[in-house]
């Protein structure tokens, strides 16, 4: 499954363009622009599954760096500052990784 089967290509493109400059990525704004905030909890969990490269049920810091590239292969890598900010914003239990429920809560809240 690809992200474009859940989100429109135009919305993904718009969200990627909005955060092209280093340190301009804001997860909540990105989720809104790409249309993810309007999706069902089931669709949000499908997106999480695509982001979870190793399939262990969590998205770790190393996977987060390449978050934008999951949406668009030519997108930039997140900076360390963006990656750490994203992780701290979503990691409710402070275990250093984002679980599916934490990701869903961040997207849909």
TrEMBL record:
Binding-site list for Ca(2+) 2 = 91, 93, 95, 102
Which key words are in the record?
Calcium, Metal-binding, Muscle protein, Repeat
One GO MF annotation is: calcium ion binding
- The EF-hand domain is annotated at 39-74
List, alphabetically, the SMART domains matched: EFh
Read off the PROSITE patterns from this record: EF_HAND_1, EF_HAND_2
Annotated Ca(2+) 1 binding lies at: 52, 54, 58, 63
Instruction: Name a Pfam family for this protein.
Output: EF-hand_7
Cited function: In muscle, parvalbumin is thought to be involved in relaxation after contraction. It binds two calcium ions.
The UniProt family comment states: Belongs to the parvalbumin family.
PANTHER family in the cross-refs: ONCOMODULIN-2-RELATED, PARVALBUMIN ALPHA
Protein name as it appears in the record = Parvalbumin
């Amino acid at each position: 499954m690809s992200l474009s089967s859940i989100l429109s290509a135009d919305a993904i493109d718009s969200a990627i363009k909005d955060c092209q400059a280093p340190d301009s990525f804001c997860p909540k704004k990105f989720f809104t622009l790409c249309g993810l905030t309007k999706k069902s909890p089931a669709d949000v969990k499908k997106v999480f599954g695509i982001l979870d490269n190793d399939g262990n049920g969590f998205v770790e810091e190393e996977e987060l760096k390449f978050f934008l590239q999951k949406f668009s292969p030519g997108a930039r890598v997140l900076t360390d500052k963006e990656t750490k900010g994203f992780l701290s914003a979503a990691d409710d239990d402070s275990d250093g990784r984002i679980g599916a429920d934490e990701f869903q809560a961040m997207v849909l809240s």
